[in-house]
Design goal:
Layout (H helix, E strand, L loop, with lengths): L5 E3 L11 E6 L4 E7 L2 E4 L10 E3 L6 E3 L8 E9 L3 E9 L11 E7 L4 E3 L11 E6 L4 E7 L2 E4 L10 E3 L6 E3 L8 E9 L2 E12 L6 E4 L13 E11 L2 E7 L2 E8 L4 E10 L6 E7 L2 E6 L2 H4 L3 H34 L12 H5 L28
Parallel strand pairs: 9-17
Antiparallel strand pairs: 1-6, 2-3, 2-7, 3-4, 5-6, 7-8, 10-15, 11-12, 11-16, 12-13, 14-15, 16-17, 18-19, 19-22, 20-21, 20-23, 23-24
Length: about 375
């Protein structure tokens, strides 16, 4: 509730001297608090948090005192530790206050590139009604309808040419939505009978790639390649806010998740060559999923590894054969070729016809016929 205090916990028992705890807020990931080498730094440049933030020196947890509605939004935590490595957490904070007709926050999820409409629930706007749409922690005005005139605030670059308001209801449509449009949207409706408010928490998800199932490359180089088991890997690249999972039929076997950063995910699976069960790899976010079914007979053929080794040995043998041919040719050339002497400005017939062209020494600037107008070239193979 507005006016309360809230603590966002890091779940760290005790911070080590070289640990770094970083707190960020909003779609632009603005730094608001940090602890590094046991030194706490609270960013006072962000006016909406001035004198409201406090960090626990032992755990790095963040407390927001006397919280207000503009503190609603996404908080991101980054923990960098020499011992535990790097980890991330996110907190979606909603602050409730007195919001006229309702204090409900409507959650909206949408795929990147789609369009979404935030409805005002107004049947018909009257001539003196005012509809105002705002976005983000700073409550930036992005669209307004007043006295039946629509005004789009094009000064906000991330929404340029993407917004559309319904002149009858005041509902807001965002076209070709992108990840930076994720956040809190606030609606103010001012009418003769009073003022009402609504809020929408919009989350934009990137399109999901198809997961790829391959045989583990280390499987052919280890002793396990001769056993009855087959090692596989399901992977996806450049993803965020997703979960990658292996299923056996409808039963979950294993999963791995990523939140904010766009990274590559890989999830291993070991099956038997003769396994007749149905396996599938699934990547999903809250609004969509992509599934790849496993074909064991295709990926886990017993000759797969031997075929890879045979191809490698054939390549090595071919390279060795080429080396032997080159050495033998060099020896023959050395035995049969002669070095002609320099006889001034003419080439004699012995140089031209008695010796192979690729054995002779490079032509010198003086080695030409006095009356010869032919163009000669030296080719290195």
């Amino acid at each position: 509730m507005e006016g309360d205090s809230v603590t966002l916990n890091t779940d760290v028992t005790e911070i080590q001297r070289n640990d770094q705890i970083l707190w960020m807020f909003g779609p632009r990931e603005t730094r608001i608090a940090e602890i590094h080498k046991l030194i706490i730094d609270i960013s006072d440049s962000n006016e909406i948090f001035r004198d409201r933030l406090q960090m626990d020196r032992q755990t790095g947890s963040l407390t927001i005192r006397n919280i207000r509605t503009e503190h609603s939004g996404l908080y991101k935590l980054l923990i960098i530790s020499d011992i535990r490595g790097t980890s991330y957490k996110r907190f979606n904070v909603t602050v409730y206050g007195v919001f006229g007709d309702t204090d409900e926050v409507k959650s909206v999820s949408v795929m990147e590139g789609d369009s979404v409409t935030l409805n005002t629930d107004v049947t018909e706007i009257q001539s003196n009604d005012q509809i105002l749409w705002m976005f983000g922690p700073q409550e930036t005005r992005i669209a307004e309808l007043y006295k039946q005139n629509i005004d789009m605030f094009d000064s906000n670059e991330i929404f340029r040419d993407r917004l559309q308001m319904d002149s009858q209801t005041g509902s807001l449509t965002i076209r070709n939505i992108r990840s930076e449009h994720t956040g809190l949207y606030k609606l103010t409706i001012i009418r003769n009978r009073g003022t009402s408010y609504q809020r929408f928490s919009v989350t934009v998800y990137a399109p999901l790639p198809d997961p790829a199932i391959t045989r583990d490359s280390s499987d052919c180089s280890s002793s396990s390649s001769s056993s009855s088991n087959c090692s596989l890997v399901c992977s996806v690249i450049d993803v965020s806010h997703v979960t990658l999972s292996w299923y056996k039929g409808n039963s979950l076997l294993s999963s791995i998740s990523v939140s904010d950063l766009s990274i590559s995910l890989s999830l291993p699976l070991e099956v038997e060559y003769q396994d007749k069960n149905t396996y599938s790899c699934v990547i999903n976010n809250p609004i969509s999923n992509q599934t790849k079914h496993l074909n064991i007979s295709q990926l886990c053929q017993t000759h797969t590894c031997s075929g890879q080794r045979s191809s490698f040995m054939m390549a090595v043998a071919l390279i060795a054969l080429l080396v032997v041919i080159a050495v033998v040719a060099g020896l023959i050339c050395r035995r049969n070729c002669k070095q002609p002497g320099n006889k001034g400005n003419t080439l004699n017939e012995e140089m031209l016809y008695a010796e192979p062209a690729f054995c002779t020494r490079p032509l010198q600037s003086t080695d030409v016929f006095a009356e010869d107008h032919t163009v000669y070239s030296t080719v290195v193979i």
